Amino acid sequence: MLLVLMFPFFCARAEFLDIPLPGGETGNLLDKDVFTESGEEISVDLNDGRFLYRSKNLSVEIERRIRTYDRLAVWYQADIRVRMQDGVPVETWDMVTLREENPMQLSVYPHVLARRTGTVFAINGDFAHVRQSYVWPGVVIRRGRVFSDAPQPSDRHQFPPEDTLAIYPDGDMTVALSDAYSAQAYLDMGATTVLSFGPVLVHAGEIQIDRISRHPLTYAQRTAIGMVAPGHYVAMVCDGRSKDSKGLSLLETAQIMKDLGCSVALNLDGGQSSAMVFLGRQVNQMVNSLGNSVGGRKAPEILGIGHTSSMSGEEEPFSWWK
User: Fold this and answer.
1) 62 to 29, 41, 59, 86, 279: CA distances (angstroms)
2) What pLDDT is stored for residue 286 in this prediction?
3) 54-86 tens-digit pLDDT
4) pLDDT > 90? residue 225
5) Using CA atoms, how far apart are residues 232 and 19, in angstroms rounded to an integer?
6) Does residue 305 contact residue 120 with C-beta atoms inside 8 Å?
7) 275 with 237: CB under 8 angstroms?
């Protein structure tokens, strides 16, 4: 029997610092071989659906996975590692925007945002900008600035439930129920960024079945972000609602994140919003109602990491598959 602990205080940070990684590593003893001594290493294999970026501080490895039994589903899972120096990551996650003074404005396609900011790797975020006028827009913090502090009650069966993922300067990530903490409480704990969407998929290495089962069993495009340990992260995006990929359920998404070693993981906005961008070009494949390949939904932010000048130009196709 799986015990699922959903206590409001499960954001406590200390318990995540020494969770073992696959192969017996610990969170602050990442494999130094994943980084280069200098310069960048970039490899793209479209036949196998593999993408690689390595620098002296950042490693991103993306792999395409295909599920064929019972229905077709295609997703891309990324293993992201950051060099830790004196207990602090050299590269950090950030909600990348074109307008730092007001990050909820000026929506563009995810690949455009990545190109203009030189972001190595990115996925879509929580689309908090569309909820700013809601009664309960959730707890939303960007670079230490509070943009909303009104989460919906965690006992409501509303989607998205506005569960949170908090990001800290030391590379830690925590997840919590929507109303577990106020914005000020997150700031007091040192969080610099808080995303609000959900549900929580994984906490303390366990799938949160109780939280996930509140929502209908549907197959769709999915985006998820998780942490194995500070400095080691996992992101995934699933294609869906097309003949080439029917999509995944929330539970299947959670199982993937757990199998990849995540101690914590949160579901982010999905559907047409789902996007994974590598060096300025979209990795996942999306189609519109006419079956045409399209970019992800426009947004003012992406959740990104790393900076490079090795970026696709404005005139390049938006997708790696065009």
Assistant:
1) 22, 14, 10, 27, 12
2) 74
3) 999 999 999 999 998 888 999 999 999 999 999
4) yes
5) 11
6) yes
7) yes
